[in-house]
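pinned: reference chain
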Amino acid sequence: MHEKDTEELFSQLKEDEDISRFLRENRDEMARPIHEYLENLLADKHLAKNKVVHASLLDRAYAYHIFSGKKKNPSRPKLLALALAMGLSLSETQYLLRYAGLGLLYPRHSWDSIIISALEHRLSVKDANALLFSMGEKEFLG
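pinned: its structure tokens
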């Protein structure tokens, strides 16, 4: 994985006056594209991509474009649908969102609270959508 922790990178970045040098010297420390991270999650959790795609309720072609890297910046709801479909924990999901450069789930927002609950209770995307709907919130893919 990475040899330097985030604090070490922050410290080095603040001290280095040459951003080109910093990036060159830390090339291996930089985040990989989101599709590579998702592929690693599939492998680590021994998940079949086709089953995750099906469980996510995303458009099949769109989901495969996320996994192949053709869709480089998937939206937060789409990544959350994949997180639920993969059975990720709340902490794994928060890391996925951070990795993708998206906002973390925040319990002071009702929509986010419902998704946090869905993750904690290991709900399917379909059940999470039903819960969102029943609580008067916008559905994932609606």
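why pinned: Residues 34-44 form the longest helix (11 residues). The chain has a mean pLDDT of 93.
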